Fold this sequence. Notes:
This protein is of the alpha+beta class. The protein folds into two domains: 1-89, Thrombin, subunit H, CATH 2.40.10.10; 90-150, no CATH class. Helix content is 13%, strand content 26%.
Amino acid sequence: ATSPDLQVLQTVLHSDDYMAGIYDPWWGPNHWNPTLMIGAGWSNQTACHGDSGGPLTVVRNGVITQVGVVSFVKSWPNDCADPAVYAELSGPQLAWIATQVPFVATSWGGCTTPHGTAGIWHVEYHSYFSPAIPQDGPNYWDIECMPPPQPAPPSPPKPPASDTKPLPTYCKTKPWMPACQTV
């Protein structure tokens, strides 16, 4: 049954073999694609009608991380009694979400750059041509660990305030003039 309240469920993730046994019956069409899908839930403890688009999250190193999006569930003959199918978030899908919700990438924590130094995650997903990064249809995406931005150099110190009037500009070329004499 539907509810106006947000529902939360703690459940298990299933292996591809287990899910293929449910969604790829020997007598019918194959609906399980292990490279694009994650299976989760138990009998009557799973996603159901109206849950499409909802998140599948796990806790990694104490941080809640979204790994999937509700896609579909077997509704016949047992009306949502089987584990649900989630679209797996990885590669371009994860990059797109991280560009839309910046907290996603920052919640991943630190990373190690290819040079072995501490870094931060840099995420791109855009439609303009980028020669060295992967393509997702007409778009380009990348997730990489980069060195953190360097702090801006300090501003030069300001000269101390002076109570005296500044010298006229002609004093640079005519220092002997009386108005250019300093004590």
